[in-house]
Amino acid sequence: MTTVPTVTNVTSPRPRALVTGASRGIGAAIARALAPTHDVLLGGRDVRSLEAIAHELPGDAGPWVADLADPGALARATTDIDRLDVLVHNAAVTEPGTIADTSLDVWQRVFAVNLFSAAELTRLLLPPLRRGRGHVVLINAGSGLRITSHRGAYAASKYALRAFAETLQAEESPNGVRVTSIHPGPTDTELQRRAAERAGREYRPEQFLRPESVAAVVLNAVRAPADATVSRTVID
Ligand SMILES: NC(=O)c1ccc[n+]([C@@H]2O[C@H](COP(=O)([O-])OP(=O)(O)OC[C@H]3O[C@@H](n4cnc5c(N)ncnc54)[C@H](OP(=O)(O)O)[C@@H]3O)[C@@H](O)[C@H]2O)c1
């Protein structure tokens, strides 16, 4: 596992955000939406695709490379982050299948990225978040609110992520940390394209939310006045 140094420009007066899963899809759109006002650390595993996005962005944007399924990598990649204003847990994986067909390996892979990494990354970054009276944004899903068949591991991880978010809010709002869960409906990203391909369905992007629309909702939550917390937003 490769970990490149994180961006640590202590002289920048702008707030700093870390967005996981920023190499494409909703995460890349969130990074683009935050970049005019924030220095953005772009999370992902492929340094080249992250660098390509970082080069387009204003401010002090840069890759933050870590495999979220590797707790050791999270510890290494957070040691240099001494200040942080916004942490967006966006990365997730889905491996569709019925409960009858879902092996323990799949449950463990899905939970490692979708839940455990969010818990561990939050724990590691709470000191700078508390110092900056920061904001934790969790990109959840419709699957975190209601159940459909054939995606039990994904839905269970998103239900658990909701419980995590609500506990975090209860514990950290006295410390000035805000917590927001965003539940987008189906959105035009690779995740949906792959699902359509697997199901042999025609893919029509116009039937989905645009990643930029989800990012605009995230930006609104981040921009809310400090005394207002957008706890949960469902996007249809
Ligand atoms: N698309 C939808 O319809 C939809 C609807 C509701 C909610 N959501 C939620 O929105 C979020 C983003 O989804 P998306 O559709 O944009 O997904 P996507 O296009 O599949 O992108 C997933 C991102 O997660 C990163 N990632 C995956 N596994 C990782 C790992 N082990 N370590 C580090 N990074 C990892 C990927 O980075 P790499 O480049 O390293 O692979 C990529 O940047 C997810 O939380 C998803 O559940 C999506």
Question: How does this model look, in words?
Answer:
- By secondary structure, the protein is α/β, with parallel strands linked by helices.
- The protein has one domain: NAD(P)-binding Rossmann-like Domain (Rossmann fold, 3-Layer(aba) Sandwich).
- 42% of the residues lie in helices and 14% in strands.
- Helix 2 links the parallel strand 2 and strand 3.
- The longest helix has 28 residues, at 104-131.
- Residues 1-9 have low confidence and may be disordered.
- NADP nicotinamide-adenine-dinucleotide phosphate (NAP) binds at residues 21, 23-27, 44-46, 49, 67-69, 90-93, 113, 139, 141, 184, 186-187, 189-192.
Oligomer type: single chain
Determine the number of helices (DSSP H or I, runs of at least 4 residues). 7
- Label the structural class: alpha/beta
Number of domains: 1
The helix-strand sequence is EHEHEHEHEHEHHE
Radius of gyration: 17 Å
In CATH's first tier, which class applies?
Alpha Beta
| Low-pLDDT segments | 1-9
The overall average pLDDT, rounded, is: 94
Second rung of CATH, namely the architecture: 3-Layer(aba) Sandwich
The helix content, as a percent range, equals 40-55%
- Molecular shape: globular
